[in-house]
Design goal:
Elements lengths: L13 E5 L35 E4 L2 E8 L3 E10 L5 E11 L2 E3 L7 E3 L4 E9 L5 E10 L6 E11 L2 E8 L5 E8 L6 H9 L1 H10 L3 E8 L10 E2 L5 H9 L11 H10 L14 E7 L10 H9 L7 E7 L11 H9 L4 E3 L6 H9 L7 E3 L10 E4 L2 E3 L3 E4 L4 E4 L10 E8 L7
Parallel strand pairs: 3-10, 12-13, 12-15, 15-16, 16-17
Antiparallel strand pairs: 1-5, 2-4, 4-8, 5-7, 5-9, 6-8, 9-10, 11-23, 13-14, 18-22, 19-20, 19-23, 21-22
Helix pairs in contact: 1-3, 2-7
Amino acid sequence: MKNFIWLLLATGCIQEYDIRKDIEPPVAPDVVETDVPKDPVLPVDEPEEPYAMILVEPFDHDFGYLEVGCTETYDVVVSSTGTAPLVIEDLWYINSLDISMTSKHKLPIVLEPGEQTIFSFEYAEDDTFIDVGRLYIYSNALGFPEVMISHGGQGVVSGEQIDVYEQGGESKSDILFVIDNSCSMSNEQNNLATNSALFVDELLMSGVDFQIAVVTTDNPSIRGGIITNSTPDVYSELSDAIVAGTVGSAIEMGQEMAKKALEGDLRPSSGFQRTDAFLSVIIVSDEDDFSLSSDTEYYDYFFYLKDPGLFAFNSVVSTDSLCPSQVGARYMAQSALLGGVSLSACAEDWGSSASILAESSFIPNIYFPLSDDPYNDVVEVFINGIRITEGWVYVPATNTVTFDVEYAPDEGELVQISYDYTEECVQE
C-alpha cells in the first residue's frame, strides 16, 4: 500500500493546531524525500559548551487502511539527548479532520538531559478519504531547530452487500373493531359475525400477520382478548367478540371509544400498535356518532397515529336515507378523509362487505430490513433488476428501506437493496 504520510492535504478538510503566533506555517512538502534526518546526530566536532539535542521516536507513522468507524492511536516520544536542557518553544500542527493530536502541552516544554515527553495522536476514521497530519517542533536543539513528525492513512469499507427479497405480501395489520351495542343492533351484529369467516379468510390467504381487537361504542375495554394468526379458533373468537349484545348505551360514541382504546389497553407499549404494521379502525353502527369532541380533533388524532398510508378509518353505517336508521355522516366523513371505506349497514348479505373490509385493513409489505448498516446511509434499490429512485426512503433508526404505499412492490416481485458496509470494530 502507498505510504500516506507525505501525501498532500488536498483530499480533506484541514484544521491547524496553531500554538506559535509569530511565524508562518511551513509549506507541506510535495515530494517523498525530506531533508530532515530521522535520527539527528552530533556534528563531527562536538561543542565544548553544553548543548541541547532532540531525539524523536518514531519520526513518522503509517496508519495504513483503517476500517471506517474504527480508531487507532499512537505515541511519539521526544527525548532530550544533549548536555543542556532541551527547550521546545513552539508547536505547529496541521491535520485532516479525522486525525488529531490528543495530548496537551503547555509551552515552553523544558526537558533536562535524559528527560522525555510524549505526543499522542488519534486516527478516528469517518470516511474513505486520505488523511494526513504533521507536527512541527521548534526548539533550541543544536543543528535541528525545526523537526517534523508526520502520519497518515486512508479509510476503507468492508465491501458491498446485496439483500434480496421476494415480495410475498407478508404485511402486518392491527385491526380495531368498534361495535355499536345499542338495542337496535342485533341484526347488524349477527350479520357481521356470520360473515366474519370471510374477513379472516381474506387475511389468512394474503399472508397477513394480524392482530384484532373488539370494543363497543360505550366501552373501550377489549372483548375477549387480542385475536391473532396463532389463536386456536380465530373464527369463533372473532364471531363471539363481534356479538356484543344490545344492552349498551343509546348514546353511541364510536370515535371516542376508539381513541380511548388506542390510548389505553391498545396503546403502543401494549404491543398492539406495532410500528411496522398497518392500523385499521372499523366502526359498525346504525346511528351517527355522538362523541363529544369535534371531528377535527378526532381527525388530527387518527391522522398522526401512523405514517401516511398506514392508517384507515372504515365505517359500516347507514349510508343514506334509504336505511331505516340515522345516517352515519360523521363516520363517513372521517372515512373519506382518512383513507378508509364506507359500507352500508343495511345490506342483507355482508359477505362482500366483509371481504372489502379485510382488503382495506392491510397493505403489501413496505418494510425491508437490511442485514448490515449501510456506509454513509447510502443504498440503491432495484425491483426486478430495474433501479428505483423514488417512492422509498432509507430509515437509519430502524435500518430499513420503507416504500411509500403507492410504490410498494407487487406480490412476486424481486426486491434488491445494494450498499457498502463496514465491519464492527473495538474502539480504543
